[in-house]
Amino acid sequence: MKRMWRSSEKMSRVNIKRQNEHKNTGQHISKTHKNPNINSSPESDANIHFERVGFRYGREGEILSDVSFSLPPGSMTFIIGPSGAGKSTLLKLIYLHMRQSRGHITLFGRDTSQIERKEIPALKRRMGIVLQDFRLIDHLNVYENVALPLRVARSKREDYREDVLGLLKWVGLGSRAHALPPTLSGGEKQRAAIARAVITKPDILIADEPTGNVDADMGRRLIRLFSELNRLGTTTIIATHNTALIPEDANMLSIEHGQVKGNINGEQIG
Fold first, then answer.
1. First vs last Cα of the chain: how many Å apart?
2. Low-confidence ranges of the chain (pLDDT < 50)
3. CA 157, chain centre distance (Å)
4. Which domains are delineated in the chain?
């Protein structure tokens, strides 16, 4: 497999080639990265639909109230809003970390309220998730952390080694491949977490403040990485406070006082 992370220009050329090579599979960069334990569904099921969703903790007031929107397969959407508005809560509902208090959420063509707990791990393996606390494994080095989803998918080391090293170089961690997470800065941990989330080319990518600990240049570089992944068909959702990094024509949802408003593919939400 050719390296796809050497530079943004080479990424684009490789992406076009792979789109042609894998137009019938759509959801994976390479068959060698396909998890044999998951029945991969067609791209069209990587949609996300909220219908009058509400969420509250205990008896407190609703953090999210009457939220309704649809994110089409292969779309890229930015979620903005002040601190504490509910951006992370919205993402957690999407990646099945929590369940709504009311309303309906559809993920991969299924009502999430009907998904059994034992089914969640397999569905999560179809998602790349970047959290604010990184969730790196301290006793594994950076290379091993990024390669972990591929090991779980039982891919062969010789099939993915160059891809992992190339991606680490692209996010500025080429010289830190053998470093352990406790020795990394906050920005380095964030970039490692992002690399781990995108290495399998997931059906859905969810990123919570992915540029919060990096400088402006690296922030733009990471947004380009997400954009390249999105061009390959990954449904991409990014929560951010840095509106300067959001393209002018991007899909956007804004959360304030529990309400969600915005624009998705020209359709007004809220």
1. 45
2. 1-43
3. 23
4. 47-111+119-264 (3.40.50.300)
Q: Which token pair is 5?
A: 């992370």
The candidate with the shortest Cα–Cα distance to 128, out of 213, 28, 32, 14, is 28
Q: For 43-82, what is each residue's pLDDT tens digit?
A: 457 789 999 999 998 888 899 999 999 999 999 999 999 9
Amino acid identity at 59: R
In three-state secondary structure terms, 19 is: helix
Cβ(46)–Cβ(73) under 8 Å?
Answer: yes
Dist. CA 50–CA 69, nearest whole Å = 5
Place of tokens 């990123």: 207
Q: Which residue has the tokens 């998890």?
A: 35
Q: How far does CA 117 lie from the centroid of its chain?
A: 21
Q: Is the dihedral of CA 249, 189, 187, 15 positive or negative?
A: negative
Non-local (6+) Cβ contacts of 97 within 8 A are none
SS3 14: helix
The position carrying tokens 């559809």 is 106
Instruction: Extract the tokens encoding 164.
Output: 């992992």
DSSP reduced 3-state for 76: strand
State both tokens at 239: 């929560």
Question: CA-to-CA distance for 270 and 257, rounded, in angstroms?
Answer: 13
List all residues 6 or more positions away from 141 whose beta carbon is below 8 Å from its beta carbon: 177, 178, 179, 180
